[in-house]
Amino acid sequence: MIRARLADAALALALPVLLLAAYDGWARTAGNFFFPPLSEIGATFAAEWLFTRVPTDLLPSVGRMLAGYALAVAIGVALGTLLGLSRTLSRALDPVLQFLRALPPPALIPVSLLVFGAGDGAKVFLIVLGAVWPVLLNTVDGVRGVDATALDMARSYRVPAHARLTRLILPAALPRILAGARTALAIAIILMVVSELVGADNGVGYTVQLAQRGFDIPEMWAGTVLLGLLGFGCNAIFVAVERRVLHWHLAVTGRATHARRP
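and the corresponding structure tokens:
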């Protein structure tokens, strides 16, 4: 078991290490101002993002992203459940929802600044507007995909509506809901950066853009690396939580066995 896990880790790290080594070798020989070697990027990263900018830029960005993501998941699950249970409500709201879904969130930055000002509200609003759709649509599909026979049996045994919702419908739809939530997490990180490019005075996106405008290339690359690490870490945490929450589903589908192969 341990040997297999070490082999999997080595296989997963092989390509990134080779790519980094190839880039560093090329950067040292090319001497291109816009592509500094890894040692310079690493030194800037350690100096700026391990200590100095964590409370002033990293934590505010993560806080806004988590707030927007949490709201997007809550709204998506609640509204998606209602639309999945009521086709009449779904038909009534479909034109409005399709219109809002078609709006690209970055195009609403001026509107959000006018409505919410230059504070965190505008940034959270953009994150919610972009991240809510995968959760909402997957929730609708998950609720509508619940086995009709199981629903009929629950009704025949006079199971209360709230019990059917919490013990049958939502658990059955949970795999699709979490699939949408995972997609929404990546969107939330992207929109976190986009929302900080206009009308912001802190944040990772703001710092990267400021470094680019000031031709501080190592700092720009350090911020970019941080965003990649942030996305990787958030996804790893989400996958760990998903495996724990959906252990029953993974066992049934065989994914858990495959993931822990000897």
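(Above: one complete record from the training split.) Residues 14 and 192 are 30 Å apart (CA to CA).
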